[in-house]
Write a structure and sequence with these properties.
The chain is α/β, with parallel strands linked by helices. The protein contains two helices and eight strands, in the order αββββαββββ.
Length: about 90
C-alpha cells in the first residue's frame, strides 16, 4: 500500500472519531508503532521504540503526506508490507 492511499482513506470519512495511534497486531496483542523512517530502498517503515507513546494523528498524517509516493511497511523483527488496515476504537490497526 502506498502512503497516499492510506492518507486518502483515513481522511475521506468526515465523521471519523479521533484516531488514537497506529498499531500492529502480533497474535492477540496490539503493539503501538511509534516512529517511521525511510529506508535505503525508499520505503516508509513504521516501527516501535520502547517506552514511547503511540504516534499521534497529526504526526501520522504529516508523515503520510510528506512521503505519499512511498510504499508502507512495518518492522517486527523483519520488514512486513502493509496491505490494508482497520479501525477499532479509534486505533488504526495495520
Amino acid at each position: 500500500m502506498k502512503a497516499k492511499v492510506l492518507l486518502n482513506q483515513l481522511s475521506a470519512n468526515p465523521f471519523h472519531e479521533k484516531y488514537k495511534g497506529i498499531y500492529s497486531q502480533v497474535g492477540s496483542t496490539l503493539v503501538p508503532l511509534t516512529t517511521a523512517k525511510v529506508d535505503a530502498e525508499g520505503n516508509l517503515i513504521f516501527f516501535r521504540q520502547h517506552r514511547k507513546t503511540p504516534m499521534t494523528e497529526k504526526t501520522l498524517f504529516s508523515l503520510l503526506l510528506l512521503h505519499k509516493n512511498k510504499h508502507l511497511y512495518c518492522w517486527n523483527s523483519r520488514k512486513i508490507a502493509i496491505y490494508g488496515y482497520r479501525v477499532e476504537n479509534g486505533k488504526i490497526i495495520v
